[in-house]
Amino acid sequence: MMPDVLALLGDSATLARRPAFHIEPADAAAVRAYHALRTEVFVHEQGLFEGHDLDDRDDEPRTVVLVARDREGTVIGGVRLGPATAEDIGWWLGGRLVVHPACRGRVGPALVRAACAHAENAGVLRFEATVQARNEGLFTRLGWDRVRPVTVADTPHVLMRYPIGRIAALARATKSDLGPLLSGLTGVPGFVGDDGVPVPGSDVVAACDAILPSMVERDPDWAGWCSVLVNVNDLAAMGAEPVGLLDALGARDASFASRVLGGLRRASQAYGVPVLGGHTQLGVPASLAVTALGRADSPVPGGGGRPGQRVRLTADLGGRWRPGYAGRQWDSTTSRRTPELRAMLTAVARARPAAAKDVSMAGIAGTLGMLAEASGCGAVLDVAAVPRPRGASAGDWLTCFPGYAMLTTGPHELDAGPAVSAECGELVARRGVALRWPDGEQTQAIAAGVTGLGTS
């Protein structure tokens, strides 16, 4: 309709600037046109198949088809993509990239880029495609990596993999500057980079976290709740019993401060951890930091792991994405009763694993990298074995901030009340974090250390 309107208005300049084609998800009619184009190219032109090239993936309801349309709306190309396994664990396959013979050149690369973007937006962490050997150069130029040669329809093909750097990018953004910044400034031997720190000469364990100012401004009640949540989880990771909290709040006025303190007060009551004191300043930009104090005779280190130890994730899968933070913050705690919250907080202290780390803003994979780095080794994470809530993609879940999620190592069981616990990997002698998939393949998530703080 828009070109017709522009023509009626005499806007020839805008008409001339319209792109030669655009890419969109296919409706039923476009899927039929895409299939017809595949028959034209793969059956009649190239002779790869007899009669048709349709297969089970075309009948799979989760398969997504993206098509390219020219200015007249004609389908001139397309590509399909979708999950590789019965349960979508973040491994997708692309394929059947086709372009009309008269339109080859720009359309094919654009379709490949669109497929990559769609996969990443869907939370995919492993994206592969089997391409004809003669098209390997195109995919290489678009940033894909060669995996191995394969044969399809008696024709040489190459399995290519698109490198998705979501986990590594999050780790860099949240943690990579810590080593250079904090060198020589903090740390107790054996607990460098831990969630909290044992106070020398005592059984006191202290933890401190600040909430992002933008989050305080945007959602003050949630910020207040989270300021308690993150601190008591930090103590829990060290097997410490929380004793009390100190808060430091900056707010533009009393009304805004009351909203932050309302969330903090509710969390303090829900967890049964009192606010002992603190500081409140009005007439200033929003800021919030909380310090938590706990007790532990023998704190559990975050760097106590060793190669060969199994990795366990214990996570509360209840709840939902926090409104306004879909894919980034999982809220399982605001709906829990105090006994459930306390059961989760005391799980590490009761199990006494070799190492424990509360999942931080670096996400599950990034936090595992921090645990491994502090332990002087690396880790492998079995993606399909990671406990994950329904409705959360693998990419979102491995990179989000969960309400309660604890990574532990060593021979132990972790009973954390409503939380689900499962072995899902192991520590290894090499550095970094690899994702292991059901077919035995491993893909790199983090190449080396996360924080640069080194071995604990």
TrEMBL record:
Entry keyword annotation includes Transmembrane: no
Xref: PROSITE patterns: GNAT (PS51186)
InterPro entries named in the record: Acyl_CoA_acyltransferase, GNAT_dom, MSMEG_0567/sll0787_C, MSMEG_0567_GNAT, PurM-like_C_dom, PurM-like_C_sf, PurM-like_N, PurM-like_N_sf
A Pfam cross-reference name: AIRS
GO terms (BP aspect): thiamine biosynthetic process
Keywords recorded for this protein, A-Z: Transferase
A GO term for molecular function: thiamine-phosphate kinase activity
Domain named N-acetyltransferase: residues: 21-165
PANTHER family xref list: THIAMINE-MONOPHOSPHATE KINASE (PTHR30270)
NCBIfam families reported for this sequence: MSMEG_0567_Cter, MSMEG_0567_GNAT
Name of the protein in its database record: GCN5-like N-acetyltransferase
Organism (species): Amycolatopsis methanolica 239
UniProt gene name: thiL
